[in-house]
Amino acid sequence: EAGVAQSPRYKIIEKRQSVAFWCNPISGHATLYWYQQILGQGPKLLIQFQNNGVVDDSQLPKDRFSAERLKGVDSTLKIQPAKLEDSAVYLCASNPGSNYGYTFGSGTRLTVV
Amino acid sequence: KQEVTQIPAALSVPEGENLVLNCSFTDSAIYNLQWFRQDPGKGLTSLLLIQSSQREQTSGRLNASLDKSSGRSTLYIAASQPGDSATYLCAVLDSNYQLIWGAGTKLIIKP
Lengths: 113, 111
Prior knowledge:
The complex is a heterodimer. By secondary structure, chain A is mainly beta.
């Protein structure tokens, strides 16, 4: 089966600019996750979708971050405006349901200068 | 509150050696435990998933064990190769369906 697809692979932007990341989960996976991983740290959950509904967005900085999952398939994560501390790898993962293993995409490496 | 610890934080061994990475967790009420590999600046590759009812899983040169009662898991890598160099992370799915991560073990295999 095809894996979790993410784009772009790399992005460099200036602070205060906006950026968007895209994720296409494995076909049929109802649950989709966005994680932020800062260098040297473990992944931090930003938001979890079940189909097209939000299950958990408690750690999403809602003043600058937004995410949507239209039609319960693809998802986009947006940052506007970006700050230097947003420099990280943004990881998308999916699974068929909460009790299953996670499959991660290759990530988007964001550098804010 | 579930906490996951990985020891050691870094490990360097000569090529060909067998090695063990450790993962411990504080609350035995988990649904599963998953081991991942991560290359620098890249995404996470799932290596092995152990459900709470299982004791071990094997894939090629990798074997992962799970002892829920003692809150421990080990990842055994046989006949290590330079290509195995990466950071290895374990994560447990806790009773609230939250994925709790260890900080990882950075593994270097010397040719």
